[in-house]
Amino acid sequence: MRRIARFITMVMAGLLPSLATAQGITTYVPVTNERLLHPEPENWLMYRGTYASWGYSPLDQINPKNVGKLVPVWTFSTGVEEGHQAPPIVNNGVMFITTPKDQVLALDAKKGDLLWRYRRDLPEDLFQLHPTNRRVALYGDKVFLATVDAHLLALNARTGEVVWDQVVEDYLKGYYMTLAPLVVRGKVMIGVSGGELGVRGFVQAFDAETGNSVWKTYTIPAPGEAGSESWPGDTWKTGGAPVWITGSYDPQLNLTYWGTGNPGPFLGEGRRGDNLYANSVIALDADTGALKAYHQYHWNDSWDWDEVSAPILMDVQRNGRSIKALVHAARDGYLWLLERSANKISYVHAEPFVHQNVFTKLDPETGRPTYDPQRIFGVGRRAEFCPSVWGGKDWPPAAYNPKTGYLYIPANENLCGALTGKQETYQPGQLYIGVDFSAIELLPSAEAKDHIGELQAWDLNAGKKVWTAKFKSHNWGPVLTTGGGLVFLGGTNDRYFHAFDAKTGKLLWQQRTNSGITGVPTSYEIDGVQYIAVQSGWGVDAQRKQELLDKAFGTQTFVPQGGVLWVFALKR
Among residues 276, 268, 314, which one has the least CA distance to residue 295? Predict the structure, then answer.
C-alpha cells in the first residue's frame, strides 16, 4: 500500500519521467563532431553557440532598423519556479530546454508544440544551494543532462527515454551539478558544483556511447601533486574550487578551458596559501584530462569571487601583434586578457571594469594581485570590500561580436559588501563557508540609487570601454549578440527583455515578460524566419541579492517566479 500511495503521489506531482513523454520526434538529425566544430548559422547546438564561447549568432534578419517590430510568436510555461537559466538549444527545428528540478522539454521550435518531456525523480533528502539547470548537450542521437543529484544522463533525442545513467558523485557529500555538459570528440565533460559544501572540485569526461568514465581531473591537487603546497594540512580535501559553468574548447590545441570557483570555506585565514587551482582558468587536454596550464586570477580568495565563467576565445591585436586570447570579465571586477598556447597561459593585461578596492596593484609579468589587508575579513573581524560577494559580473556570460569587434559585459556597479568570519567545522553535505550566511551584507553607494546594473561594450584591440547602458536594477542578464548588429539581454527586476544597438548601446526595443530573466538568450532560423528565444524565470542568487538590496534600501521589490519560454520574431 505504501508503494501504491507513493506512486500516486508521484503521478500527482508529475515526477515520473516515464509519464512525461508526449508525441516524440519522428525525424532527428544527429549531431556530429563536424557539426559541433562548424555549427550551421540557423541552429544553436551548444551552450554559447560555439566552442569559443562567443554567445554570437551570425543571423542578421533582425537588425537595428526593424527590431522594433519584434513580437512574441509563442510561449511555453515550464510548470516550475526558481531560476530558469538554460539557453534554448535548437537542432534542425527541434528545441531542447532544461529547467529547475532537472526537467528537459523537447519542443517544436517553430510552433511550440511539446514533443516529449523528461523530469527526474529527485531524492527527498537532496540539499543544494542553486536549484537550477543550465542546459543539455547534444551528440549523435542523444541528449545529455547533468543533474543536481550528481548523475550524468544520456536521453534518446527522439523520445526522451533514458539510454544510460551514470553516477558521478555522492550528493549526500554536497556534490551536485548545474552546468551544461561539453561534448568534444565523443567525450561528454562535466564539472561539479558544491563549493559551499566542502567538496573537492573536478572535471570528468565520459564516453558518449557507453557512459563509462574516460578521465577525471581534480581542481585541487592532492599531496605530492604540483600545487599541493598551496593547501595546508588536509584543507585540500574540502577546498571547493567547483566548476559551475561549461568550458570552452580550442580544437587546434585540443585544450578545454574551465573557470573554477572559490576555495572553501570563504574564510581564507584557515587555509593560508594560494589555494591552487581555485579562482583560476585551467587548460585540460581533451583526450586525457591532463592539466596543461593555468592562470589564477586571485589567490587565497576571501570574498566568494568565483571565476567560473569560461573564458572567451578570440584574437586580440595589441602592441602590433595578434594574440590568441582568453578573455574573462571576472567576478573580482577586473577584465582579464590572457594568451593561450600549447603548454602555457600567459598574462597580458587586466584592468577594473567596475570599482574595485581590494587589489592595490598587479604584478606586471604575472598579473598576481597584491591585497589591501584592511579588505580581508577574519574570525570575528568584519571587512568591507568592493565589489560585493556577487562581484562585478557573476556567472551570466559575456558575449563577443566579430563584426563590431566589441566584448559585451553584464556588469554591476556601485555595490560593495561586507563579511565577518566565524569558526567552521566540516560536516559532509552541510554548509562549510566560515561566515554567518544571514549576515552577508550589501553596501550600495550613493550612486546605487540611480543605477546598479550595466551593459558595457569594450573594444579590446583599442583597450577601452566604448559605451555603457545603465539600469536602475541590478543585472543578472546573460548576453546574446547577433550578426544583425544587436545585443539582447534581460537580467533586471522590472522583467524586461532588451535589445540594444551593438555599435552605440542605444536601447531599441524591450518586452516585459512574466518574471525576471536570468536565462541565456539564443537565436535560430526556420523556413527563412529568424527567432530569438529566452527563458524568463527569476530565482536563486538574483532573488537572494534582491532581498539584500531591499534590506539595504528599505524597499520591497516583488519579482514573480514561474518559468516561461518566450520566442520572438518580426511581425509579419
Answer: 276
